[in-house]
């Protein structure tokens, strides 16, 4: 079946540090890939997505590139802020089986001033 | 205006009880979902529902049943609650079943079974 693996947290960084959160996947067919973010006590929000190989999703300074050859979708940000502290989820959807999202385990990011 | 809303926000109940969680979306979407997030933050799909077509994750106990009175609502009914049902339940919606579409999540319902 489909699966998503992302690096375990927590990831603790100082403000303005560079961020990378690794995400790899296995899927049948050609999935769309997503990064969702969950702030404390809130629901999930879409951060960015890519729907085909070599696409780059970007939003709020975050970027991720759909790499079919390495089945990866790593999340990066050049300079993190305290307000970026949250849990980040990598996910995929193939549109099969009711378009259900398959999530990775989540990575907690803590940014210190 | 809240795009996807859930009620209640918190639910504390005893084992063996039956409870329902309501979900409404005002986005005009055709497809709605229920997800369960456990204490370790792991998210798992439970159901997706589109135009009366229900897709069930095979691991979901049959004590859980979604009910959709109309396209904008997908309620979750749980019978005979168990301790292991304690979790945060998220409702979501998307325009359709297309895998490229973004899913929009509600704020979650925190269920605690005592």
Q: Could you list some keywords that capture this structure?
A:
heterodimer; A: 113 residues; mainly beta; 6-stranded mixed sheet; 4-stranded antiparallel sheet; 12 strands; 0% helix; B: 114 residues; 7-stranded mixed sheet; 50% strand; globular
TL;DR of this structure?
By secondary structure, chain A is an all-beta fold. Chain A has strands at 3-6, 11-14, 19-21, 23-26, 32-38, 44-50, 56-59, 62-65, 75-77, 86-93, 102-103, 107-112.
Structure overview:
The complex is a heterodimer of chains A (113) and B (114). Chain A is built from no helices and twelve strands. By secondary structure, chain A is an all-beta fold. In chain A, strands 2, 5, 6, 10, 11 and 12 form a six-stranded mixed beta sheet that branches. A four-stranded antiparallel beta sheet of chain A has the order 3-9-8-7, with no helix packed on it. In chain B, 0% of the residues lie in helices and 50% in strands. Chain B has no helices and eleven strands. Chain B has strands at 4-7, 10-13, 19-25, 31-37, 43-50, 53-56, 64-67, 75-78, 87-94, 104-105, 109-113. In chain B, strands 2, 4, 5, 6, 9, 10 and 11 form a seven-stranded mixed beta sheet that branches. Chain B is globular and about 35 Å long. Classes of the chains: A mainly beta (113), B mainly beta (114).
């Amino acid at each position: 079946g489909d699966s998503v693996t992302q690096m375990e947290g927590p990831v603790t960084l100082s403000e303005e540090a560079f961020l990378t959160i690794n995400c790899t996947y296995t899927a049948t067919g050609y999935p769309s890939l997503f990064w969702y973010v969950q702030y404390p006590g809130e629901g999930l929000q879409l951060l960015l997505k890519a729907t085909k190989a070599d696409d780059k999703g970007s939003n709020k300074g975050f970027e991720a590139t759909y790499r079919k050859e390495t089945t990866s979708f790593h999340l990066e940000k050049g300079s993190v802020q305290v307000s970026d502290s949250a849990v980040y989820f990598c996910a995929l959807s193939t549109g099969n089986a009711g378009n259900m999202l398959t999530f990775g385990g989540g990575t907690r990011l803590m940014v210190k001033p | 205006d809240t795009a996807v809303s859930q009620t209640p926000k918190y639910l504390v109940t005893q084992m063996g009880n039956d409870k329902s969680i309501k979900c409404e979306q005002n986005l005009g979407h055709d497809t709605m979902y229920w997800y369960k997030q456990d204490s370790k933050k792991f998210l798992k799909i439970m159901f997706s529902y589109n135009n009366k077509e229900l897709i069930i994750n095979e691991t979901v106990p049959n004590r859980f049943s979604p009910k959709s009175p109309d396209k904008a609502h997908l309620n979750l009914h749980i019978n005979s609650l168990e301790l292991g049902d304690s979790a945060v339940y998220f409702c979501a919606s998307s325009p359709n079943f297309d895998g490229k579409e973004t899913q929009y999540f509600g704020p979650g319902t925190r269920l605690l079974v005592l």
